[in-house]
Amino acid sequence: MVEPHVYPCRVRWSDIDSYGHVNNVMYFEYFQEARIAFLSGFSRVSGARTLVVARQVVDYKVPMLFRDPAYPIHTWVTRRGTSSFTLTSQIRDGDRLVATAETVIVAFDGDAQRLTTAGRRRGRGARRDAPLTARQVAMAPRAC
Questions:
Q1: CA distance 130 to 107
Q2: CA 76, CA 141: separation in Å to the nearest integer?
Q3: Contact between 43 and 130 (Cβ < 8 Å)
Q4: Chain-wide mean pLDDT for the chain?
Q5: 31, 56 in Cβ contact below 8 A?
């Protein structure tokens, strides 16, 4: 089985709230950073067709604290559809689970203002900046 993508997340001093731990809003930013790093290995996104977040749910397990070593964020594909796919991400502190996120990503056509099929083949000479293809998603790391 393929290993999940791991992103080293560094907590910044400005991320800490008055209670001495990472503010809950920052978790969304951390998961976004990990998601961008994960997806950048598969596709460049630009133009009218792009990938957008349709839904994201975060579950907080234990507080994240300011510290020097980075927290690893593990990301993998857990569901594939024709116009969307779901990523699961986990922030870990050793064996301890800090937080999880489930993010639904959809292929969107900005010109038509509608969802589009992520895996539609465009034949020879297809744009290199097209959204993630179904094959690319199929080859992405899955849950371990």
A1: 10
A2: 5
A3: yes
A4: 82
A5: yes
